[in-house]
């Protein structure tokens, strides 16, 4: 009997498939309004520092669901890592992901406020950036050259390398005045304004209100299940 249970534990079964399905369903309604993958990452907290604060990434598995949604993990790689997170204690990986997000948010937040002082976490960002770029290679694609991060699925948090790299490119190579905080007082989302006149003020064309409704629906749905 014991042996049979062991065998069952090794094969991701129904529980695993449900987890994959629920994770995909959850992130199918996550809006990609940041115009940059690093901003979409920090936007996984909504209504930051308000009583309505909503955390999208509550586990390592959630982070993988998000990564698949934004296209930095293929469905196959996401499933492979979800299986790993499902079978093992992934709390350390989760903490690391949330730490990375905090670092990125603080640097962006300082940039958006046009603070002149060096952000306290810039050294931390440089450490994770160096680790990411050590593995990066340049490859040719249809529109020119791009960074590629090989074997992101080998390392449990390696899928964040393109996110860290995008953050660096945004800070160094883009028009920093286009990095903006949504004008809705509580929203807290950051976005890169690609409008012709640099006139965009809101995170979403539809307005944040619509997203708030979707989240409420999702939360009610979670409570019922
Ligand atoms: Zn907004």
Question: How does this structure look, described?
Answer:
The chain has 225 residues and is mostly helical. It has one domain: Jann2411-like fold (Orthogonal Bundle). The protein has nine helices and six strands, in the order αααββααααββαββα. The strands form three sheets. A two-stranded antiparallel ribbon has the order 1-2. A two-stranded antiparallel sheet has the order 3-4. The protein has a two-stranded antiparallel sheet with strand order 5-6. A hairpin with a 2-residue loop joins β3 (137-141) and β4 (144-148). α2 (14-27) packs across α4, α4 packs antiparallel against α5 (75-87) and α6 (91-112) crosses α7 (122-135). The longest helix is centred in the middle third of the chain and has 22 residues, at 91-112. It starts with a helix and ends with a helix. The site of zinc ion has 7 residues, from loops. Zinc ion binds next to loops.
Task: Tell me the layout of helices and strands.
Layout lengths: L1 H9 L3 H14 L9 H6 L2 E2 L7 E2 L4 H11 L4 H13 L3 H22 L9 H14 L1 E5 L2 E5 L12 H13 L5 E3 L8 E3 L15 H17 L1
Antiparallel strand pairs: 1-2, 3-4, 5-6
Helix pairs in contact: 2-4, 4-5, 6-7, 7-8
Bound molecules: zinc ion.
């Amino acid at each position: 009997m014991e042996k049979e249970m062991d065998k069952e534990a090794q094969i991701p079964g129904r529980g695993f498939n449900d987890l994959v399905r629920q994770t995909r369903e959850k992130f199918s309604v996550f809006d990609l309004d940041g115009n940059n993958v690093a901003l979409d990452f920090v936007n996984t907290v909504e209504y930051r520092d308000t009583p309505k604060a909503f955390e999208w990434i509550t586990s390592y598995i959630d982070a993988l669901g998000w990564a698949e949604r934004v296209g930095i993990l293929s469905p196959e790689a996401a499933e492979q890592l979800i299986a790993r997170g499902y079978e093992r204690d992934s709390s350390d990986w989760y903490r690391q992901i949330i730490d990375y997000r905090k670092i990125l948010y603080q640097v962006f937040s300082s940039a958006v406020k046009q603070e002149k002082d060096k952000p306290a976490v810039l050294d931390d960002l440089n450490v994770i950036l160096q680790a990411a770029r050590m593995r990066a290679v340049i490859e040719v694609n249809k529109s020119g050259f791009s960074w590629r991060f090989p074997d992101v699925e080998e390392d449990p948090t390696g899928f964040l390398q393109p996110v860290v790299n995008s953050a660096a490119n945004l800070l160094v190579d883009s028009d920093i005045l286009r990095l903006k905080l949504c004008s809705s007082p509580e929203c807290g989302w950051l976005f890169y304004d690609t409008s012709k006149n640099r006139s965009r003020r809101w995170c979403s064309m539809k307005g944040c209100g619509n997203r708030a409704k979707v989240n409420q629906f999702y939360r009610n749905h979670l409570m019922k299940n």
